[in-house]
Design brief:
Length: about 280
């Protein structure tokens, strides 16, 4: 009896725990908004400007397999990939804003169609790049395989999200659309995850920066989409759960991830994106 009354008074109510969970999700979204908006700015200022200047070879300053003389289709795939990268990044951020969904449902639907199509083109062009330029693209076979699996997951989530929207099963549509957003964001999380790691250690630890391989990178390649997809499932279950401790522990985890995103975004902006634009 005594234990029950202590635990009952110690834990906040389920309603308060739910509010905390919602608050942590909002904080998480703001950190994603900040980080992905900066990623989109970098893509526009580097890749779009190089394209406008008709200087595609400039891509090679940041991706060795960017422009290859005489490989027409390979170069088209790279251009489509990097130019659509800004569109998918901004499109995904817009899809998650609840007020846009409620007030402008047509915008949500059209942006959703664009997002899903772009996700498929990004994945197919990315896989094509790996298959045709694996000798020029940084990273090991394990890394390339991990990104290919990420691409397959993106395509699967995109198909499922469309299927459920067409069947008007909106709860399932929402779940698959969230999975799609998380899987797509794996690409951005890889960059900020690496830079958060470098910011913490101050030097490359667990990988070789020249060959771009090593245990840390191998783990990161898979972690950036498997872990977030797993955490999303925990978050969705915590939302449905009547337990305050489950909601609160999930809020704590989501908030912590938000702080890691801030650290990684700072590291990626200062260490990767600003130097590339400034070259
Ligand atoms: C869907 C979201 C994606 C976004 C926003 C995205 C974005 C980008 C960007 C901006 C680059 C240029 C490198 C840089 O400046 O950081 C890039 C390169 C690349 N992407 Fe993606 N990408 C996505 C998905 C994928 C997928 C699913 C694959 C594989 C199936 C893939 C494979 C590649 C490859 C192989 C490169 C070249 C890397 C190199 O040469 O170093 N991408 N991507």
């Amino acid at each position: 009896m005594k234990t029950q009354s202590i635990s009952a008074s110690w834990w906040p109510s389920v309603a308060l725990a739910q509010k905390t969970l919602n608050g942590s999700a909002k904080f998480w979204y703001l950190t994603v908004l900040l980080g992905q908006a900066l990623f989109a700015c970098y893509i526009v200022m580097f890749y779009y400007m190089a394209t406008v200047d008709q200087d595609i070879e400039r891509f090679n300053q940041v991706m060795p397999g960017g422009h290859v003389q005489g490989d027409f289709w390979g170069n088209i795939a790279v251009m489509a990939h990097v130019l659509l990268a800004a569109i998918i990044t901004v499109g995904g951020l817009l899809q998650l804003i609840p007020i846009l969904r409620k007030q402008w449902p047509r915008l949500h639907r059209w942006n959703g169609r664009l997002y899903v199509t772009t996700a498929m083109v990004m994945s197919i062009s990315g896989m094509f790049m790996i298959i045709t330029r694996h000798d020029k693209i940084v990273g090991s076979l394990v890394g390339h395989t991990a990104i290919m699996i990420n691409g397959i997951i993106i395509v699967t989530c995109a198909i499922k999200a469309i299927q459920y929207a067409r069947m008007k099963q909106f709860a399932k549509h929402r779940t698959w659309a969230l999975r799609l957003f998380v899987a797509v964001s794996g690409v951005w999380m890889f960059r900020i995850g690496m830079m958060a790691w470098l910011s913490i250690h101050g030097k490359p630890v667990g990988f070789d920066p020249v060959s771009f391989s090593g245990p840390f990178l191998t783990a990161l390649y898979f972690t950036v989409y498997i872990l977030p997809l797993f955490i999303l499932e925990l978050y969705l279950r915590a939302h449905q759960s009547p337990s305050a401790p489950i909601k609160l522990s999930t809020s704590f985890m989501v908030t912590l991830i938000g702080f890691i995103f801030i650290l990684g975004t700072f590291g990626a902006t200062m260490g990767m994106w600003l130097p590339a634009i400034g070259r």
